[in-house]
Structures are given as structure tokens and as C-alpha cells.
Amino acid sequence: MATAGVAVANGSGGADTTAAFKEIYSKLKEEMLEDPAFEFTDESLQWIDRMVDYNVLGGKCNRGLSVIDSYKILKGVDVLSKEETFLACTLGWCIEWLQAYFLVLDDIMDNSQTRRGQPCWFRVPQVGLIAVNDGIILRNHISRILQRHFKGKPYYVDLIDLFNEVEFKTASGQLLDLITTHEGEKDLSKYNLTIHRRIVQYKTAYYSFYLPVACALLLAGENLDNFGDVKNILVEMGTYFQVQDDYLDCFGDPEFIGKIGTDIEDFKCSWLVVQALERADEDQKRILFENYGKSEPACVAKVKDLYKELNLEEVFHEYEKESYSKLIADIETQPNKAVQTVLKSFLHKIYKRDK
């Protein structure tokens, strides 16, 4: 359900922000372990303690940290008050909890082996499919955290609606991905740019790009209904980010990006394969149909050779240039200068990234 970590804005107080963010995690977890709504046994407390650490921690926390950085930019300050820092960090952690919930279930659906350099949670001895319930608990923690710290705030209902809406969009994008990629026989003819775009927008862009900024806007007292264009720009940015990810999966340096790409072997609905299908003649299509989705190195090599033959590296660089120009133009039409700064900070972190 998730993609690679999203590199986003990190304000002037990067190290301080990260330290404050980590400190607040411990408080939020403690509250979950002391939640009076359930009579925990010692064993269940130990389980939740370990489960939350294992799944919520370990990522780069870029989505969560960007709530704080975006909020600072919107307020026009370098330093937030203690209360503002706490609320911004708490919303950031809610996004990290959401990410953990998605990943726990996603790894089961994909039958994955590892996540963030360690075994997927459901592969940990004694966990197995208890992980499904753990995912549900992680999702419920978000509601508990929001209720505890935001009930009574004028934007509380908007926050609940926002998380519900983004979760629904992400789960629906995941469904589309699963039935397109995994259902029945492998059929490349199902893949096209429209399907790819829809999967990416719903599965990744809303929760990775729109959600952190929407949280910051609500904290700043804004009405999200006035920021439809901002949502569209961020979703477009998320789409561009995933196209980069698809490109790097094939053409990136594994030593540098820290992982070996497997989109070809995994029969992913990747931007590269849909571009290849659009450009290939009948003979080239036959090569794709015969070799895509197979794990034999010779089959993978044939697909990569075809990508090179179709000049997809150049196609990507052209797409990247056009996307950047369009995004900058759209950002600069925004009437709010602080919002422009937030959007540009996101874009400049991901433009021409190589990992």
C-alpha cells in the first residue's frame, strides 16, 4: 500500500524538530498503554508495546515531520510554542501510525518478506495472522489519539473527516492495485496509463503528500474547502514521486538507493511498463508479454533491454521536466505566499532525486 519514504520539507530547526518529535512518540504510546477503555493484561500490554515500536518506528518519519515544517511555514515562524509543537507532532505521529497500519496489512497481502531491513511483522515468530488484528488496533489508536488531544478544538471534526477520507482513498487505491496486479492470470493488457495514474493517486499521493499539508492547514485555522487547488497540486506531486520511484526501481543504482528493484519480477503496474506498452510494436509487445513478471534474470534482462531500446530513460527525463514546469506554474498561481512556500519545499526535495 505504501511506497518509498517521501522526502519532504525539513525546516531550519531540523535536528530540534526531530528530537521533539521522537520525545512525543513515547508520551503517545504510553497513553495507548494506559487507555482506560480496555482492561489490559500484562501480556497484552507487552504485546502492544512491542508491536507499536516494531511497526510505527523504523521509518524516516518524513510524512510526520513535514506536518511540523509545513505548520511553521504557514504560521511564518521558526519556533512554535510548546503547545503548538505538541499538537503538530501529535498529528505527525497519527500519519506515521496510519502508515504503520497500511504497511502491516500490505505486507500480508503481498506476502512480503522484509520491511525496513527486518522481517515483516506477520513473519515474526508467534505473530502470524495476529498481525491483521494488530493493524486494526493501530488504526484505532489514531482515533484515540485524536479524541484525547483534539476533541474540543474547532477543527476536530474536520480532522476526523480528513483521516477517514484519506484512509478510504488509500484502501480503494490498494484494491485497484491488487485486482489489477494480482487477480487471476497475469494479463499485461489490463495495464495502461489511466489505470497506473489512478492506482498511484489513490494508493500513495493522498496519504503521503496531501495529508501532512492538510493537517498543517487545519492546525493553522484554515478551511480545507478553500484549498482544493492545493490538494490537486499535492496529488499531482505524489503521482510524479511514484513515477520517479518506478523509474529508479529499474534504472537506479541499487548500491545508492539501498534496495534492488523488483517491479519487473513482481508484475507491477509500473509507469515504465505502461509507457513501453504504448510505444512497442507487435514484436516488442511479444517480448514484454513473454518476459514481464518472471523472476529469471534472463527474462528481467530482456525487459530492461526493451526499455532501453524504447528510450524510456529519455521519455522519463522529458516527463520529469514537464511535470516540474507544470507544478511550479500551478504553485505560483496560489494566492497565499506561505502555501506557495510549503508546496515548493515539497517539490524541491523530490525533484531530480536519485534515491
TrEMBL record:
Its cofactor is Mg(2+). Keywords: Isoprene biosynthesis, Magnesium, Metal-binding, Transferase. The keyword ATP-binding does not apply. Pfam families: polyprenyl_synt. The keyword Zinc does not apply. SUPFAM superfamilies: Terpenoid synthases. GO terms for biological process: farnesyl diphosphate biosynthetic process. It comes from the Eukaryota. Belongs to the FPP/GGPP synthase family. PANTHER family: FARNESYL PYROPHOSPHATE SYNTHASE, FARNESYL-PYROPHOSPHATE SYNTHETASE. This is Farnesyl pyrophosphate synthase-like.
